[in-house]
Amino acid sequence: MLLLAVALVASGLAPGAGARPAPADPGCVGLVLGGGGARGIAHVGVLKVLEREHIPVCAVAGTSMGAIVGGLYAAGYDAAELERLVGTLDWADVLADGPPREALPMERKEEDFRHLLDLEIGYRDGRLGVPAGLVRGQKLMLLLRRLTLSTWRTDRFDALPIPFRAVATDIVSGRKQVFADGDLAVAMRASMSVPGAFAPVKVGDRLLVDGGLAENVPVSEVRAMGARRLVVVDVGSPLLGEAELRNPAAILDQVVTALMAEKTARELATLGPGDVLLKPDLGDLTAAQFNRAAEAVAAGERAAEALLPQLRTLALPPAAYAAVRARQRHRAFDPGLLAFLDVEPGLSPSATRRAAWATEALVGRPFDVDAVERGIGRAYGDGRFEAIDYRLVRRDGQTGLELLPRQKPWTAFGKVGLQLDDDFNGRSNYLLSAELVFNDVNRSGGQWRNLLQLGRTTGLRSEFRQPFGDGGAFYVQPAVALRSESLPLWRDGEAQLAEYRLLRREASLEAGYSPSPAWRVGIALVGGKDAARLGIGDPALLPNASESFAGLRLVATRDTLDSISFPTRGARADLEWLSLQPWASADADGEVVRFAYDRALSWRRYHVLLGARLASAIDDAAAFRAQTFLGGFLNLSGFSERSLVGTQAALARAVFYRRSGDTSRLFSLPLYVGASLETGNVWQSREAFGTGTPVVAGSLFGGLDTPLGPVFLGFGRNSHGADAWYLSFGSMLRQEPR
To answer: I need a labelling partner for 246 at 20 to 30 A (CA). Which of 146, 475, 665, 673 fits?
Structure first.
């Protein structure tokens, strides 16, 4: 993508169609706002000085971040409003795609426990593919849509409070695309589609990326709008020094920057003696450092104040300026009741129903942007859409909502994951996961999901989920699974006696109900066979064994956690009741109940995760399926993984952790330091449950929240005198596979 950008910049792009001259006052002051990512926030500081000095703006053109600041100013925002906006936005959230975890459907929340990375590899027509950008821009688009709602009935940019132009680049033809009409939010989003970072924007038959490749400082566009004198703000990134050019990425970036600078210099050479050029001194502030917004605004102010004598020649008397600004404020915005809902055609039938279901409750009610975004978030969380936009439309004198979903371009997609544990006592294990999902297998939205695992657990699970009913809240899910896993056998958690390989085969048919992302209930008919084969140890002590089983499994889950890596809010409760019956001469007979609960609480940088685990084979059944394991990091620390086993188990814990470092940085690896206090034990009979002295354990740890998942390095010790170091690549939360 970067090589393509180099070629486009080097090609000397010809002006594209779409820009039309707009009549302007002979004394018109045109504002040109250049691109530069986070450096473009300096434009807000320039606007503050222009307003303070009563310098009117009657035409604006912008590229990339300049298009966003300029478009919002043209829509009626003033400098103070823009400063509050850029200073209070959670940029890390805005520039992320996914909805909050709380809004994801339950089946996608379960993906977290399979340690899958948030990177999809798609498949269609014999080809593999990855997303066109690291960021699809879903949240950014919704933010721009919200901020420009007052212009929803304005399709000519000359009719905005201030006439406006945005510059993008057609990545297919290599030509400049100037937006003079259409959808203001889409124009701004397209202009900021940095190749490789943001996915391109499709507008009509054009595929558009960042306008900086064509014209980073669009002087010619403001000239074409009729402006006689210009205020031009150039916030382009400086060239790197020789010492910084030490890798191919830096060199390619330098090539693009140099070519853009050369094209910008040609534009700036056309400025006349009456024009004012501002180049804010932004120091080492990079295009990605949105967390330094206040510094950028201040730099823009300083640059404008340094040229006050020139700027003041453009000023109006206070009364005349106030009259101009009064005409440039926000327009009244009250669309009233939403009378209808349309979904843009071209989707699969099930995707159309999914998008409509998430928002159909809005019809017949007053327009509420928060409710619209929540509905879109529910639909987007389904996982089959690249993006979902919306717009207000008028038809037959009524106002309605039009949804603009874009499905992912592949019919199947896969994810991979990794989990790693090492206790530095000679025991280590790993788990590689790969999942392949086929969406829309039928017209009713059936989904076929396949999970392959290698390592500590090796196996394959295949399930078919068929939603039905109102909004797909009900589902039927047949599944088959074959799993082989290591089963160490310990004495009191301290001396390993043997190690088995447990082969588990299961088939199930589940019916369930999940009316909201927060909870789900299901009941399943299950059957299969478990077999343990000795790998290490004395066969005379513990022989091989096998056991068939059949029965019913009832599950109920409520999950509102914001994360399972380092949660800061929400809770998860998970209940399982397994009734094993001697159907068809099955060997296992008995009932098992398991309950897990975790709740996260926070105060600024400080967090605590409170948790409890309870498990009981109610009638002391000794079946394989009745066994519960404890031991390992945060799970009675000090012991090795799964070194305590029994038909009865209890665990309570409190995990405290603090985030260190600059929490406002857009790209960072959050570092956590923490400690835990845990207590619990296992027992071999219900009568013995709770007897004896519980194990008390604790740990100290450091953790990193990496793109590959959370990584912990910790030390644990317990009241039995056992201690261990842990290197763990996985979640704080644990979920035993069903």
So the answer is: 665
Helix, strand, coil % over all residues of the chain, rounded to 5: 25, 40, 35
Say what angle helices 369-380 and 349-359 make with each other, to 10 degrees: 150
Query: b or e along 443-477 (b: 16 or more beta carbons within 10 Å of the residue's beta carbon)?
Result: eebbbbbbbbbeebbbbebebbbbbeeebbeebeb
Q: Tell me the CB-side half-sphere exposure of residue 305, using CA atoms within 13 A.
A: 11
Query: How many angstroms separate the Cα of 694 from the Cα of each of 649, 691, 720, 721, 734?
Result: 11, 8, 10, 13, 21
Structure-token pair, residue 498:
């043997």
Q: How far is CA 445 from CA 105, 198, 404, 411, in A?
A: 14, 29, 19, 12
Max CA pair span of the chain: 101
Decide: pTM greater than 0.85. Answer: no
**Cα 260 from Cα 253, distance rounded (Å):** 11
Task: Tell me which DSSP letter residue 169 carries.
Answer: E
10 Å CB burial of residue 401 (0-12, 13-18, 19+) is buried
Distance of alpha carbon 226 from alpha carbon 338, whole angstroms: 39
Q: Which two tokens stand for residue 86?
A: 């850029």
Instruction: Kindly write down the DSSP assignment for every residue of 507-550, as one continuous string.
Output: EEEEEEEEEETTEEEEEEEEEEEEEEEEEES-TTTS--EEEEEE
List the alpha helices (DSSP H) in 53-103.
65-75, 79-88, 91-94
Give the mean pLDDT per block of 10 residues along the chain (738 residues). Answer: 39 40 60 92 96 94 94 95 92 80 86 73 71 76 93 92 94 90 94 81 88 89 91 83 68 69 81 92 88 93 95 92 90 84 82 82 90 88 86 91 86 80 72 86 88 89 90 92 84 71 94 92 96 78 84 96 92 95 89 96 95 92 85 91 89 95 69 96 90 94 86 93 87 72
Beta-carbon contacts of 245 under 8 Å, excluding residues fewer than 6 positions away, are 251, 254
| Rounded alpha-carbon distances, angstroms, from residue 419 to 114, 323, 453, 702, 727 | 9, 64, 11, 17, 11
CB atoms near residue 566 (< 10 Å): 21
Structure-token pair, residue 254? 């330098």
| Count of CB atoms situated within 10 Å of the CB of 221 | 29
**Shortest CA distance to 443 belongs to which of 331, 350, 308, 341?**
350
Distance separating alpha carbons of residues 717 and 735, to the nearest angstrom: 23
Phi first, then psi, for residue 294 (nearest 5°) are -60, -40
Cα–Cα distance between 628 and 578 in angstroms, integer?
A: 13
Q: Which two tokens stand for residue 473?
A: 């809240």
Strand partners, 451: 435, 461
* Sign of the dihedral defined by the CA atoms of residues 244, 245, 248, 252, in that order: positive
